[in-house]
Every structure is written in C-alpha cells, then in structure tokens.
Amino acid sequence: MAGVFINYRTGDGAEAAVLLDEELKDIFGPENVFRDRRTMQPGVHFPPDLRRHLESCGVLLVLIGSNWLSLRDADGRRRIDVPGDYVHEEIRCALEWRRTVIPVLIDAAVLPTKDELPSDIAELTERQSMQLRVPYAHVDLPHITEVLRGHVPVAGAAAQPAPPAGGNVIHAKRSSISTGSGNAIYTEGRDARSGGTP
C-alpha cells in the first residue's frame, strides 16, 4: 500500500492543496498522489472512485486552515458535522483503517481540540502535525516531502542517488505565489535546470 491522499476543504486550503500536490507529484509520481480536482476525470462517479483512491493510499494529509472547523453550510451547520461530508468521511475512514494520518496546519492555523471535533474523528488531535506556511513553502515543503519519503516510493529521477563528489546539480522551480489581501494564489508551473561543476 502506497501513495498520498490530500484531504482539504474547499474554501479553506484549496490553494495550499494545489501547491502541495505540485511538489509531491514531481517527487513521488502523479499516480502516487491524489488530489481530487487533478486526479478525477470529468464524468467519474466520484463517491466510489474517491473511496478507491483512499483505500490505496498509505498516508492521508489533512490540510487545516484557519477556517477549517468553522465553515458552515446553507443551514448554518458546521460542514464537519454534516452527514456525508467528504472531509469528515475521509478522515474517519483513514483513522479506522489505521493509515498514517498527518494534520498539516496551513499558515497560522492551530489543531482543533478533541472537544471541537466529532467523536469519530477526535483521534486526529492525537496525531503529530506539520506546518505549511504558504509564503515560506520553500522551507516547509522539503520537510514534508522528507517525512513522506519514509512512507511513499520515490518516482523516476527523484529516486536517483546523489551526484558524485565534485558535481553540482541545481533544481529550480518556477512558481507564482501571491498573498495579497490575505489570500494565497498559486500558479501551477515548473522548470528544472542543471548546472555543471563550479
């Protein structure tokens, strides 16, 4: 069993989910990283397809932003409490199946307390969390990917051994992140280049 499933709430963490997905799929391969809007094709019957992907993953990353717990539906109910809520169900199943579940706190978000969560996912608060500060993604993403290397096979060139002594390889990513007005905007796109010996 391998692979990473990115669990996030629309309206709280979608930009960070894209940022994380772009980084992880380059390291572990797109087939080993699930993000619904990239992975699932139009017309797919998503409830069973979602469950199939969740069953095949060994790690669930739960992206938690500052509004993750407080977002409400049209009737005023917290979305985490609404029966059939996908974020809730994915966490519940992953905990029940004893998968590795890692809360990823976005920017200044804090982990909810047990009393704030539905009882069937309260165990989430007992899992060691990580942080993804979008403006400092260049610092936080390498730490997240390093932890995941212990759980997920590394794909392709990313799995190659380090270059011999005296060699110098530089990998550069191109991304556009704007945090104006408090909203993070991530533009997908990447470059890579290699340099020779100094």
Widest β-sheet, arrangement of strands: 2-1-3-4-5
Major beta sheet summary:
5 strands, parallel
Globally, the shape reads globular
Structural class: alpha/beta
Radius of gyration: 18 Å
How much helical structure, as a percent, in the residues? Answer: 25-40%
What pattern of helices and strands is seen along the backbone?
EHEHHEHEEHEE
Quaternary structure type: single chain
Features:
198 residues, alpha/beta, five-stranded parallel β-sheet, two-stranded antiparallel ribbon, disordered C terminus
Give an overview in words.
The structure is a single chain. With 198 residues, this protein is an alpha/beta fold. Helices cover 27% and strands 14% of the residues. Strands 2-1-3-4-5 form a five-stranded parallel sheet, sandwiched between helices. Strands 6-7 form a two-stranded antiparallel ribbon. β6 (176-178) and β7 form a beta hairpin. Residues 161-198 have low confidence and may be disordered.
Care to give the gist of this entry?
This protein is an alpha/beta fold. It contains five helices and seven strands.
What's the topology here?
Blueprint lengths: L3 E4 L6 H15 L4 E2 L1 H4 L6 H11 L2 E6 L21 H11 L3 E7 L23 E3 L4 H12 L27 E3 L6 E3 L11
Parallel strand pairs: 1-2, 1-3, 3-4, 4-5
Antiparallel strand pairs: 6-7
